[in-house]
Design brief:
single chain, 573 residues, alpha/beta, Rossmann fold, 8% strand
Length: 573
């Protein structure tokens, strides 16, 4: 067949397009489509390909023998089903049979019509051998024309029409219908079935069904006026031979490539949706951690407010008692009374006041701690538990057993599984919820804290931290006040003692506030950071997936545009 230069150039562009399409299919991970595109590439330089399909014993093999005008049986015909392999019949100078695999043979024959066409004879669509239909389906995407052969007596078998849906709906292939073995029916009954087939095809979405009723038996016996094969050959001459088939084949290849691009688009959209879900999941984790950190810090604020209010109430009461006890009348009375009795000296009174401050502060702050730490611990523990629940509930679209997303789904499944397992381990290990920085260097960690388990020790850690902080601060405060009181020698120092007490109280308050805020907020921040550290691998996966999806979308769009340009050129040609 002689092709004009323009058609040759367009075919070269189409071949490059299909080559890149196969690469894109492989990169996306769609093995089935990659295999189909490979078949399409292999057959682009072959003649216009007819694929003969239909049910077992519909007369396909007889139809092929008659179509090729063979004086001998090319495709075996017998009362029982004979076509147990797909047979691709091609032109060859000498007759030769090549067995490609147990399910595919290539027959080379010196038959003139095969210079323009290649014929694929297939097993029945209702064949009991699963591989037959699978291989038949692999030929359909690369076909240029599908000849659907029905038994003239019954063109309504469900399995045949199910296969029609695959050809027409999924691949939009050009189809003509053949009612074979018309010699076994009366003209009236044949007309009824022709009309029924036509109407059924219309319902299936075909715009103008082409139907030929044939008799291979009459054709092979030389009764050409009864066989109707001349009409089939006229169709072939009109649409295929004389150079028209090359352009039509190119058009078919572009249509098939476009359909494959559409299917890849669906895959990319599913992959993008999974990426969106994973990104939303990751954002939700970050937002949950931020929200729980705010809630925990709110509990820190409440705890500090309660502690400081108690601190203020006790120290203010002792301060008022100190100020009153150091007034001139009180001191004079205490001095006079001391002359006549064994009443405690001013030093004894000050020491008693310091002891009273210690007892009242310890009682007040201990009560405040016991109430406030529970709520704070629950809030921090809730942070870890919420993240654990969200990890277990993450949505999955690309299943691990899906061949379409085999690579990405397996990687994602592995990352998510490791995240679940790692976080489960994280939740059970007490060291993840402990922090040596929170404890003074010379303080021995409480045995109850050391023996804690996982997130359950949060309350113990926080109780230990707050108690140590509070009582370290109050201990320093009491020491300072004790030294201040010990220096009292005369009434003239009254103002100095009161101001000194107020300064010590203020300093202690600031120290307590700063220490609690630093340690408690620091603890919340530390736990949040340790939880977030578990997501390093999924973050890396999402970064890689984002760039990969962007790249694949760009490749897909470029191929779509190239296909459109070639198709437009072909219309002009």
């Amino acid at each position: 067949m002689i092709l004009n230069q323009r058609t040759l150039a367009l075919r070269a562009q189409c071949e490059d397009l299909v080559k890149d399409l196969q690469q894109l299919s492989q990169e996306i991970g769609h093995k089935e489509l990659a295999s189909m595109v490979g078949e399409l590439r292999n057959r682009m330089s072959e003649p216009f390909m007819f694929v003969i399909v239909g049910e077992v014993k519909a007369g396909k093999s007889s139809f092929v023998n008659a179509l090729l005008e063979s004086r001998r049986e090319i495709c075996a015909v017998a009362p029982q089903p004979m076509t147990d392999t797909v047979q691709q019949i091609l032109y060859g100078e000498t007759e030769e049979t090549v067995t490609v695999n147990p399910f595919l043979k290539k027959l080379y024959l010196p038959v003139d019509i095969l210079k323009d066409i290649a014929v694929v004879d297939t097993p029945g669509t209702n064949s009991i051998i699963a591989n037959h239909q699978q291989i038949t389906e692999h030929f359909i995407p690369a076909s240029d024309l599908v000849i659907f052969v029905f038994e003239a007596k019954n063109p309504y078998r469900q399995s045949a029409w199910d296969f029609f849906d695959f050809i027409h709906r999924d691949w939009h292939k050009k189809i003509i219908f053949v009612l074979q073995q018309k010699d076994l029916m009366s003209a009236e009954d044949l007309a009824v079935n022709e009309r029924g087939l036509f109407e059924f095809a219309l319902k299936k979405g075909m715009e103008d069904p082409v139907i030929y009723a044939t008799s291979a038996k009459a054709e092979l016996e030389g009764r050409f006026d009864q066989s109707n094969f001349s009409a089939v050959r006229d169709y072939i001459r009109t649409h295929v031979t004389g150079g028209r088939g090359a352009a039509l084949k190119l058009k078919n290849n572009l249509a098939t490539s476009g359909h494959i691009l559409d299917r890849l688009r669906t895959d990319l959209d599913t992959r993008a949706e999974q990426f969106r879900l994973d990104t939303e999941f990751r954002k939700d984790i970050t937002q949950t951690l931020d929200n729980q950190e705010r809630k925990s810090n709110h509990h820190v604020d409440l705890l500090m407010e309660n502690l400081l209010n108690g601190y203020d109430r006790i120290t203010r009461g002792i301060g008022e008692e100190l100020s009153a006890g150091l007034s001139f009348p009180a001191l004079l009375k205490r001095s006079v009374m001391g002359l006549f009795s064994k009443q405690a000296t001013i030093t004894d009174w000050l020491n008693g006041l310091a002891k009273q401050l210690e007892l009242q502060l310890n009682a007040e702050l201990r009560n405040k701690l016991n109430d406030g730490v529970v709520d704070l611990a629950d809030s921090v523990q809730q942070m870890a538990k919420l993240i654990d629940l969200k990890i277990r509930a993450a949505d999955t679209l690309v299943k691990s057993d899906s061949y379409i997303f085999e690579t990405i789904s397996e990687k994602r499944a592995a990352v998510m599984k490791e995240l679940q397992e790692a976080f489960a381990r994280f939740m059970t290990r007490s060291e993840n919820f402990n922090d040596g920085k929170l404890f003074p260097e010379n303080t021995t960690v409480s045995p109850s804290i050391a023996a804690g388990s996982g997130a359950a020790i949060i309350g113990l850690v926080l109780a230990g931290v707050t108690k140590m902080t509070v009582f370290d601060v109050t201990g320093g405060l009491l020491t300072g006040i004790g030294m201040l009181f010990a220096g009292f020698t005369a009434r003239a120092q009254r103002s100095k003692i009161v101001k000194g007490y107020e300064a010590e109280i203020s300093k202690g308050r600031i120290q307590m506030q700063d220490a609690l805020e630093s340690k408690l907020r620091g603890y919340v921040r530390t736990i949040k950071g340790r939880i977030a550290d578990n997501f390093g691998e999924i973050d890396a996966m999402l970064d890689q997936e984002e760039s990969q999806i962007l790249y694949l979308n760009e490749q897909h769009s470029a191929l779509k545009e190239r296909l459109k340009i070639i198709d437009n050129e072909l219309e002009i040609n």
